[in-house]
Amino acid sequence: MSESNWVEKYRPTDWSDVQGNNKAVKAIRSWIEDWETGDPPQLLIGPPGTGKTSTAYVAAETTGLSFNTLDASTARKSDDVRRLSGEMRAGEQLVLLDEVDSWHHAVDLGPLNDELRDPKNPVIMTANSEYDVPAAIKTPSTVHKYKLSTASREAKLKEIAKAEAVPLDEKDLERLVDRPDLRSAINDLQLHAEMGIPVAEDEREWESSEFEAMDALIQEGDSSRVDVKPPWLVMWLDQNLRKDYDGLELAAAQDALSRADVYLGEAGGGDYHGWRYAAILARLTAKLRLSEPYRGFIKWDFPQWVKSKVPKPTEDTPEAKLFRELKGHGEVGFRMAGGYAYFRSSLLPLLQRLPEVEKWNLIVEEGLSQTAAEAIGVGSGKYETLTVRQEAEAGEELVPATGNALEGDW
Predict the structure, then answer these.
(1) Alpha carbons 34 and 39: distance in angstroms, whole number
(2) Distance between CA atoms of 44 and 138, rounded to whole angstroms?
């Protein structure tokens, strides 16, 4: 599980952690705890980010079953369906059959229907649209409708913000809760914490998730119903364009994204007027298609850029070293609260602006290494001088003297 992706990091592992959908969750818990061969599969229907996958994950976690996720969108031929049906019978496992509303009507679902009518393992299936689920799947299943209330989204966001030490005022929380689903809200909270994007900067009403935006832009060529913040929109398009764009159309779309990124760079300096131009360029990708889009289901990926580029406290940098030493890693207890993102965005700038004498006291009192001292602006020469002074003035108040080796250097 990636520590960079907060959606995965905070995915529930126990029934008490699952947000909302209490009636459905209670029924599924009873089903899995009493499951016997031949019991009907459970079909969970609802928008992305409402807890369908999390419910299946908890069902496997709490019963000790191996968790096998099968992607229905990859079974585009009848032979694929037969192979998938065979995988569902293997061993002792909980099977999550994802996105079952993605099957083309021409595919022979007979083998799957046979398996669902007498399953050898517990099966949970998910779908976004009830009307697109084939009868061969829906008929033998117990159906549960999933949605997530405002109160449930708010509770989870507060939990994550507290765990990550992210300062979040009531206005920011309200705007996050208004996101179309919990997954979008968590992604946007992470963007706010780790990239410094203000939550309340975008005044639009949010009506679509990142997944719906990819459907609209890449497959439908429709930019009119895309309401995703420009930084996220650019990253999601960059991650997923190659799934259905190729050749010249891909090159043109990537050129539009690179130009959008320039405007986002201006926003990084505090000028958010560039967001409007970045959004226009990102949506332009919908008009750059030269080939016919694939009309079936495409599984969109979370941007890998976030996972690979976000600074981590384990890195070999002065900032990460300072964080670990102030945190007390490797020793008993912790001397500083908060996570690395909060440290970099809020605490580090304060330490860097300390008067020089207070930096000196901090280095000595906390026993900071030379590398850690560099993070607050103390170079190797000053650090070595401080070390000598510390030994000479052990037990005395540590203040820089005048007329000695420190003068002109500190």
Answers:
(1) 9
(2) 10
Q: Measured between alpha carbons, how far is 283 from 301 in angstroms, rounded to an integer? A: 18
18: which residues sit within 8 A by CB, 6+ positions away?
12, 25, 51, 54, 55, 58
List Cβ neighbours of 206 (8 Å cut-off, separation of 6 or more).
178, 179, 180, 184, 227, 228
- Quote the CA–CA distance of 403 and 386 in Å, as a whole number: 15
Whole-number Å distance between alpha carbons of 21 and 55: 10
Is the pTM for the entire model greater than 0.70?
no
Q: What is the pLDDT of residue 11?
A: 85
Count of alpha carbons within 13 angstroms of residue 207, beta-carbon side? 8
Q: Which fold has domain 21-145?
A: Rossmann fold (3.40.50)
**What is the maximum span of the chain, computed from C-alpha positions, in angstroms?**
91
Q: Cα–Cα distance between 375 and 385 in angstroms, integer?
A: 17
Does residue 130 carry a pLDDT above 60?
yes
Position 39 confidence tier, pLDDT thresholds 50, 70, 90: very high
The amino acid at residue 256 is A
Give the residue extent of every domain in the chain.
21-145, 150-309, 318-392
Q: For residues 44 and 130, give the distance between their C-alpha atoms in angstroms, rounded to a whole number.
A: 9
State how beta strands 123-127 and 93-98 pair.
Answer: parallel
Residue from 212, 150, 159 nearest 182 by CA: 150
How far is 115 from 95, CA to CA, in rounded Å?
12
Residue with tokens 């909980």: 94
Round the average pLDDT of the chain to a whole number and report it.
80
Rounded Cα gap, residues 285 and 210, in angstroms: 15
- Most confident residue range from 71-75, 163-167, 202-206, 271-275: 163-167
- Give which of 339, 2, 11, 305 is closest to 193, Cα–Cα: 339
- CB neighbours (10 Å) of residue 257? 20
